[in-house]
Amino acid sequence: MNEVARKKRALEYNRRVNAGDLDAIVELYAPDAVVEDPVGPEPVAGHDAVRAHYALLLSARVREEAAEPVAGQDALHVLMQVTSVMDYLPVGALYAERGWLAVPGVPERARVRRASMQLIRIDGSGLITSLKSYWGTSDLAVLG
Q: Which of 35, 53, 111, 125 sits between 20 and 30 A of 62, alpha carbons compared?
């Protein structure tokens, strides 16, 4: 898969997340794919775990804005800056439990903004084999 095709695949991933289509998101992943979001805690691996990860994000009405992807010259990777905004519940509550984010006054009405860099590894057939989302606690903010 050439650089342009890998960039298009990364943007297609972003489009499917914004469309809220769980099945279409999982279809982009290899059966043994690994997602680290964020990099650091335990990664999730395999379609069932990937599905559960995105089901949680979609339940929070996540919306992502991606910058222009950058292709690696290794014929495998794409790097993309992504800003995500989602409902505080349920994901923000998990972040708060881990000490990453403050609990807002009215959690039911709050949103969370998260800035990240996503390193996506795409195999020759166009399937995502790895997605690593790099972000720290200073990249999180409660909105409203």
A: 125
